[in-house]
Amino acid sequence: MGYGKGIIEKYFNILPVNENTPVVTLNEGSTPLIKAENLRDKLGVGFEVFLKYEGLNPTGSFKDRGMTVAVSKAAEKKARAVICASTGNTSASASAYAAKAGMKSIVVIPKGAIALGKLSQALIHGAKVVAVKTNFDGCLKVVRELCEKYEVEMVNSLNPNRIEGQKTASYEITEILGDTPDYQFMPVGNAGNITAYWKGYKEINEKRGLSLPKMMGFQASGAAPIVEDRIVNKPETVATAIRIGNPASWRQAVSARDESKGGIDSVSDEKILQAWQELAACEGVFAEPASAASLAGLKLCLENKKIDKDFRGSVVCILTGHGLKDPDRAVKSVKKPVVVKESTEKVASAAGLI
Amino acid sequence: MGYGKGIIEKYFNILPVNENTPVVTLNEGSTPLIKAENLRDKLGVGFEVFLKYEGLNPTGSFKDRGMTVAVSKAAEKKARAVICASTGNTSASASAYAAKAGMKSIVVIPKGAIALGKLSQALIHGAKVVAVKTNFDGCLKVVRELCEKYEVEMVNSLNPNRIEGQKTASYEITEILGDTPDYQFMPVGNAGNITAYWKGYKEINEKRGLSLPKMMGFQASGAAPIVEDRIVNKPETVATAIRIGNPASWRQAVSARDESKGGIDSVSDEKILQAWQELAACEGVFAEPASAASLAGLKLCLENKKIDKDFRGSVVCILTGHGLKDPDRAVKSVKKPVVVKESTEKVASAAGLI
């Protein structure tokens, strides 16, 4: 349970690695599980609320758990490069771990699709970013062809090693709580993460007999293919990290929902941003907007009475990424500073002290 | 040594807290100590190089270690608010911990001095940000007067509880290494952090008899008051987190240098940015520009032969904040993506595979 280790060293026996796997790590994992007492009071509930703050992984998102395994396995195969079609957290993580491995990283993106700011991490970690005159599907096709022709490892979410690494978060939650939680609320985009957590909890259940949590997944209303049971061609939401119209792990997410007797529902952008601001203002936790789908989902379930507010037990909300990934959103969402003359009284008044 | 605890719970006995102190924590601390083998090879040195990645504290900088103690003590005193004059990491941390404590936070800044982006964290955590028509010294004066008149706790770096909290990083490094390092390289701005680390190491030395590291501090050339032994009226550097002309802990930094037989020197912005890019591209670690003063300093000492490259031992470089604090710098510093037609061959060529 040391914080001085990455997840491969910590969870060697449950991951697809062996003594010959070169361990490429940035000491990911061991992220905080924060007791959210202010939120609990505000919601007026009897259960404990915990926030799993995955934004404190090295590149600022949960992707690092999967990437340490995917890149280590790529290094074991002696791949020349890792490649992904991604404009966000995956490209940031892939390029950081590739840098650590001394491997090339290639990020393929549709031309014109993305602001450069979103790529700042990939760029600074030395990724070769190639903008292709096509759409996202066209990019994926190019990526697949490159993997066939060259010694290049695809680290998009279809890479099964990613899921294996990500499941370690279930183990950490269980370690800290001393038990599995009763409910887990989380955002659902490509659905790899709900798949991974569920795999982790099932393993823990098999090995230690601990009960399975109900898996509660939330998509954004404008990008809710699983909820609506149809591919969404033009997904739209402020929660960019879950702006996905055709999730790669769709089937597995439905299984996690059904096997756990949980649910997958959608929440509006307005509710997401409200929950996102609440996390920052009540709990001091600054997360990516997408992360707040978990709290927005919990609030929805309390309204709908899908979860009993007087129930005694534990609820974990997964916060998938750090708010610093999207600082502009914060500036857009708040009041500008007040300007006053140099006077202690005027400052006291502006600050609400008098 | 659990990651499931904040630093007050972990280091209760060495901090100025007691059973009546309400612990305000975001599970700060327990940050990675990353073995930098690529850098070691690149530098061609015989010693081990470690990176203490303090950017993985909750608000993205080392300030959280001090703030958990300062805000907990403010809560113990039943302060109505915490206040600071800061435009950067201190205001982000103060406002997050105040939010967690259910306390008001007030951030006083000189009007026109700062881009709103730097304040995104303070704003989203609900701080009352007041821009005053004066300079930084005028702001500090207003802050002091407010603290005299109202039940408001000042959490600027003059607050001694900040130093106490920050010293815990020395303990963590020693825990992970199993010993104190031989050298510690770190950025020096307001000089509170070098003061805190030195205090930590001296305590460890007294209690456990472990030897004291040499403290090697680095200022930016355009903001090097300690090196030049004079107040710098208009400090200038890209490393905004150490853009300080008159450090609050000046005297203590000089003591740390002299008592440890270390050194405080300056490094140019060019060398800082070069080291910053090296950290990201060779080690996969994205830090604030100021953080890279530690690596730039190590390289300077190797050039000057102030440190023997064949020496066998351990060197720790402190990386004080996360690179996501300043994403624009990354975008400014790298090549823009290449644009190509939809063709696997063209992408392969642009990515350097053929």
Counted by DSSP, the helix tally of chain A is 15
The rounded distance between the terminal residues' Cα atoms of chain A is: 48 Å
Largest interface here, residues on each chain?
A-B, 93 and 92 residues
Kindly identify the CATH topology of the largest domain in chain A: Rossmann fold
| Mean pLDDT over all positions of chain A | 95
Q: Which structural class best describes the helix and strand composition of chain A?
A: alpha/beta
Oligomeric state of the chains in view:
homodimer
What this model shows, in words?
- Two copies of one chain form a homodimer.
- The first copy, chain A, has 354 residues and is an alpha/beta fold.
- The first copy, chain A, folds into two domains: 7-60 and 162-332, 3-Layer(aba) Sandwich (Rossmann fold); 63-159, Rossmann fold, CATH 3.40.50.
- Chain A is built from 15 helices and eleven strands.
- The first copy, chain A, has a six-stranded mixed beta sheet with strand order 1-2-10-7-8-9, with helices on both faces. Chain A has a four-stranded parallel beta sheet with strand order 5-4-3-6, with helices on both faces.
- In chain A, helix 7 crosses helix 9, helix 8 (168-177) packs across helix 9 (192-208) and helix 9 (192-208) crosses helix 11 (250-259).
- The first copy, chain A, starts with 6 loop residues before the first helix and ends with a helix.
- The relative contact order of chain A is 0.14.
- The model of chain A has no long low-confidence stretch (mean pLDDT 95).
- At the A-B interface, helix 4, strand 4, helix 5, strand 5 and helix 6 of A face helix 4, strand 4, helix 5, strand 5 and helix 6 of B.
- Strand 11 (338-340) of chain A pairs parallel with strand 5 (128-132) of chain B.
